[in-house]
Design brief:
about 400 residues; alpha/beta; Rossmann fold; six-stranded parallel sheet; DNA/RNA helicase domain-containing protein; P-loop_NTPase; hydrolase; helicase; SLFN_3-like_DNA/RNA_helicase
Length: about 400
């Protein structure tokens, strides 16, 4: 079934799968127990892109806010919030709040305003849900007005219960650098539970295709391309041809968008910057609408989206341009990631707690994570073009 909006899955009334329903009940039991014992608790929801982590959070915040008005509920008069650092996701949640009697826009915040507000008011929240927790800052950031060292630490200081979703393969900046090891160290001396979501809901493809996408996005591994009549996976030698085919899919089915790795110049100075390839030139996304997400505006078919506008969203078809920082190593038959060619300089802001060697490894992981985020957007099709000639030839040869 084709999706009509990029965010339809997040409606609180969306029917949960058996695994999601089990998780939902576990979250409610965990929260009720920790509220009753007044013991701080953390609950971590893990799962790859497309496994429905945000779907569960949306249903949970709606259930909690309804229960907070019910005198017979263990959640009566609780003060609960959903936090997310991703501005496009925050728009989505606020759109949802406008349609639900039990939700208010003030229930949804970015982490820094939440931390600063509760610090100033000297109060505690009850249950705090954190979507895309892999985007939480792990160092101070003047641009985001965050003066402490770790957003998750500060959220825990002001919350009785914290429920967060986490995927180490979606970390996109050094200032929010997390991995499973760092998270395990954070949780080690705190009461916590973990639940792993495994069922893929976004990519409607056979297991071999899903494995192909996962191997490329998490290991940089190029496997033989599977033949899959259920998923339209194509490799293009020409970016312009890819774009024309994608426009046709949008005309036929809607929600087809072009995205690219952050390998093309871009500055926040009001000027227009372009993603280019031989015979191809389109502007980067200009996310000017404060209320409607980039993927849901028809005009954005004529732009190129980035990881920052598309992470967390569903498309029917996605076209991806892999930029110059993504090459090919024939010796390992894997992607060759070149940080010096990556244009998202904000993502690579240096941190003192990493050696030069560690920083290089993290930079390569960030580039790979950005590829992984983009690869997992399309429900029914993925069109791929590589700027690097060697990588393009290898992809076509698959």
């Amino acid at each position: 079934m084709l999706t009509n909006t990029a965010t339809a899955k997040l409606a609180p009334q969306t029917e949960l799968s058996a695994q999601q329903a089990t998780l939902m009940q576990q979250l409610l039991d965990f929260s009720a127990e920790h509220l009753a014992t007044r013991q701080t608790g953390l609950f971590v929801i893990k799962g790859a892109a497309g496994t429905g982590k945000s779907v569960v959070l949306s249903a949970l915040i709606n259930t909690l806010q309804q229960a907070s008005q019910n005198a017979s509920s263990p959640f009566y008069r609780t003060h609960n919030y959903l936090l997310v650092n991703h501005p496009e996701m925050l728009k989505t949640y606020k759109q949802i709040a406008a349609t639900q009697a039990s939700l208010h826009k003030k229930d949804f915040m970015k982490p820094t305003p939440f931390i600063n507000q509760l610090t100033k008011q000297k109060r505690m929240a009850d249950i705090v849900l954190v979507d895309e927790a892999h985007l939480l800052l792990t160092k101070s950031d003047r641009y985001n007005r965050f003066t402490q060292e770790n957003q998750l630490t500060e959220i825990c200081k002001h919350s009785r219960i914290v429920i967060l979703v986490f995927d180490e393969h979606q970390v996109l900046k050094m200032k929010s650098y997390w991995n499973n090891t760092k998270l395990a160290a954070f949780l080690a001396d705190r009461p916590h539970e973990t639940f792993q979501l495994t069922q893929q809901f976004r990519v409607h493809a056979q297991p071999a295709t899903q494995h192909w996408l996962t191997a490329l996005g998490t290991q940089g591994k190029l496997l033989p391309r599977p033949l899959d009549p259920t998923f339209d996976l194509r490799i293009f030698a020409d970016a312009s041809q890819l774009y024309q085919q994608l426009r046709q899919r949008d005309h036929e089915y809607g929600l087809a968008r072009l995205v690219a790795t952050a390998d093309f110049p871009y500055k926040l100075d009001g000027q227009t910057y372009y993603v280019t390839a031989p015979g191809f030139r389109l502007p980067w996304d200009k996310n000017m609408d404060p209320n409607v997400t980039w993927a849901e505006r028809p005009a954005t078919l004529d732009e190129v989206g980035s990881i920052y506008t598309i992470q967390g969203f569903d498309l029917n078809y996605v076209g991806i341009i892999l930029g110059p920082a993504v090459g090919y190593d024939p010796a390992t038959r894997r992607l060759k990631l070149i940080p010096d060619k990556y244009q998202d300089h904000e993502a690579f802001k240096r941190r003192a707690d990493l050696s030069e060697q560690q920083a290089q490894q993290v930079k390569q992981q960030i580039i790979l994570n950005s590829i992984n985020v983009l690869l997992q957007r399309g429900r029914y099709g993925l069109y791929l073009y590589a700027s690097d000639p060697k990588l393009r030839a290898q992809l076509l040869a698959l």
